[in-house]
């Protein structure tokens, strides 16, 4: 019998967190999902961990046949890790969460209940983001949230929370997407009809440190901006038109000034430089953006696989 519920967790160097995660998760599963008519499975992706994570996961899978471990041959990133698990998931309801216990497994039943009510995508909305998430971690998330809200047109509070539940249809649709740079929460929303959020608790990272630095976040932001909208390119054109218009008016003004004050000389070299630097700067931003799109097109046409599965471990 195919599982009814699939729990998906991406894991990258989480050896300190795995024991507590497994203990809490298996308790939730036995307490809340004991109905034999609704079997569950847990799919753990090892995203190329360099510590003992993989060995620990395999041990868990040996003892519990409902656990499957997808082993990647190297590190491909959180979203690819989730995709790798999506490809294995058989459940009608699919829940994702982080391994670091920032997303309490105890919240899973709440999300599952919402999908059972008929929602396609249920996002967790983190209450009281923890202080140990540094300014450099929360500030970019705020920007990501704001931009995502604008570019995808779906008004959720929290796109960054990976404690989320999806219906089978939405996951199937996501699996059809071939693009490599995909931000799962936004992608899911583009295939969902009914979307909702439920408040979930948010704990401090139990151990280890965040795998996201500022650079990964900037990359994620570009992913979002370029894969879900053409907004930056359109903004470029608008900006170009406005600048040209402004330049033309300035030209008319200068001509008029010349006629009105034939004796006046403008001491404009520095002003000119200021203006020049400004526009040169703008041009480079524009080039950068264009380059970003072209680079992404290049990556897509090479059509490399998003990840490589080395082995799937499961006790029979
Ligand atoms: N993760 C992953 N591959 C990566 C980076 C992270 O599978 O390259 C996993 C990580 O093990 C964790 C989840 O993704 O389960 C979220 O990572 P993290 O806690 O570092 O992100 P943050 O909470 O800071 O957003
Ligand atoms: Mg975390």
From TrEMBL:
PANTHER family in alphabetical order: UNDECAPRENYL-PHOSPHATE 4-DEOXY-4-FORMAMIDO-L-ARABINOSE TRANSFERASE (PTHR48090:SF3), UNDECAPRENYL-PHOSPHATE 4-DEOXY-4-FORMAMIDO-L-ARABINOSE TRANSFERASE-RELATED (PTHR48090)
Keywords: Cell membrane, Glycosyltransferase, Lipopolysaccharide biosynthesis, Membrane, Transferase, Transmembrane, Transmembrane helix
Domain Glycosyltransferase 2-like: 6-173
Signal sequence extent: none
Keyword Metal-binding found: no
Keyword Transmembrane helix appears in the UniProt entry: yes
Origin species: Geothrix oryzae
Name of the protein in its database record: Undecaprenyl-phosphate 4-deoxy-4-formamido-L-arabinose transferase
Gene3D superfamilies (alphabetical): Spore Coat Polysaccharide Biosynthesis Protein SpsA, Chain A
Annotated InterPro entries: Glyco_trans_2-like (IPR001173), Glycosyltransferase_2 (IPR050256), Nucleotide-diphossugar_trans (IPR029044)
Organism domain of life: Bacteria
A Pfam family: Glycos_transf_2
Regions that span the bilayer: 235-257, 269-294
GO molecular function, one term: transferase activity
């Amino acid at each position: 019998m195919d599982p009814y519920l699939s729990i998906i967790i991406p894991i990258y160097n989480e050896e300190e967190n795995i024991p507590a995660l497994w203990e809490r998760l298996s308790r939730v599963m036995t307490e809340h999902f004991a109905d034999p008519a609704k079997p569950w499975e847990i799919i753990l992706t090892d995203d190329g961990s360099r510590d003992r994570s993989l060995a620990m996961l395999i041990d868990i899978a040996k003892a519990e046949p409902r656990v499957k471990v997808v082993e990647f041959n190297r590190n491909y990133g959180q979203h690819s890790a989730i995709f790798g698990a999506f490809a294995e998931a058989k459940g009608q309801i699919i829940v994702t969460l982080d391994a670091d216990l920032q997303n309490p497994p105890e919240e899973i039943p709440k999300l599952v209940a919402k999908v059972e009510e008929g929602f396609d995508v249920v996002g967790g909305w983190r209450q009281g983001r923890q202080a140990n998430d540094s300014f450099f971690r929360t500030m970019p998330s705020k920007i990501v949230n704001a931009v995502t809200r604008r570019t995808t047109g779906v008004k959720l509070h929290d796109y960054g929370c990976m404690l989320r539940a999806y219906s089978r249809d939405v996951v199937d649709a996501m699996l059809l997407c071939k693009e490599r740079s995909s931000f799962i929460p936004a992608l899911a929303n583009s295939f969902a009809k009914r979307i909702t959020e439920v408040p979930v608790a948010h704990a401090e990272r139990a151990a280890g440190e965040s795998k996201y630095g500022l650079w990964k976040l900037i990359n994620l932001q570009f992913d979002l901006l370029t894969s879900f909208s053409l907004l930056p390119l359109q903004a470029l054109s608008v900006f170009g038109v406005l600048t040209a218009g402004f330049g033309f008016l300035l030209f008319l003004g200068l001509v008029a000034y010349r006629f009105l004050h034939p004796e006046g000389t403008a001491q404009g070299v520095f002003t000119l430089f200021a203006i020049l630097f400004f526009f040169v700067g703008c041009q480079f931003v524009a080039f950068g953006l264009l380059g970003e799109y072209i680079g992404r097109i290049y990556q897509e046409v090479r059509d490399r696989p998003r990840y490589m599965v080395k082995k799937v471990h499961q006790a029979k």
